[in-house]
Amino acid sequence: xxxxxxxxxxxxxxxxxxxxxxxxxxxxxxxxxxxxxxxxxxxxxxxxxxxxxxxxxxxxxxxxxxxxxxxxxxxxxxxxxxxxxxxxxxxxxxxxxxxxxxxxxxxxxxxxxxxxxxxxxxxxxxxxxxxxxxxxxxxxxxxxxxxxxxxxxxxxxxxxxxxxxxxxxxxxxxxxxxxxxxxxxxxxxxxxxxxxxxxxxxxxxxxxxxxxxxxxxxxxxxxxxxxxxxxxxxxxxxxxxxxxxxxxxxxxxxxxxxxxxxxxxxxxxx
Length: 270
Prior knowledge:
By secondary structure, this protein is of the alpha/beta class. It has a single domain (2-269), classed as Rossmann fold, CATH 3.40.50. It contains 12 helices and 7 strands. The protein is globular, with a radius of gyration of 17 Å.
């Protein structure tokens, strides 16, 4: 099993688009996939026609069993949806002991998936800390512009801090250039800088494509909406890349309790 968080504290870089289409693409290749939506905006539910009775809030705060919170949306593809109540979850978690590892403890007995992919909100709050302490890999979508590079450096540092403060095995294993326009000089320069600095971690760029914006309106993945589009081609290539790298990554055993905490996390990150 691979546990992946799709994360970037910068908004508007394609986290949900990547989560949905990577998950759908992996499922189409025969991989059993669970998508977990930790973003209070609940965009995965909108993208994939999910109407939940219970959700990620029910799991994290109300202690519902994970099986109660999962909806099957397609062959090999399940979703644990999120919604606006997750904003309240951050406040409630702040007063809890071991608040950074609630998600991991709630899912400690989860089995039967090849991939669990967590869509994260654009922040470094408690929900994202829970995501990183559940996952062993961080996929970081990055807009191909100078601010995208700044956000990536911060995210890389945050992953290292989580690893150090909590003694947790997590690595940034994929940098995904998004909103790429090969006609644009800044995009080309940023992509070259990403490839130079991060080399084998950098995936093929996800090009600007109107079909990627239209697909959520039809509550479909890009493969369902327009399988011949550039967006489908780019995400299909990403899926192949991720599957090819499967032998490199495994989920190690992790300690039941972790040192540090949110205070230590903020101190090291500062």
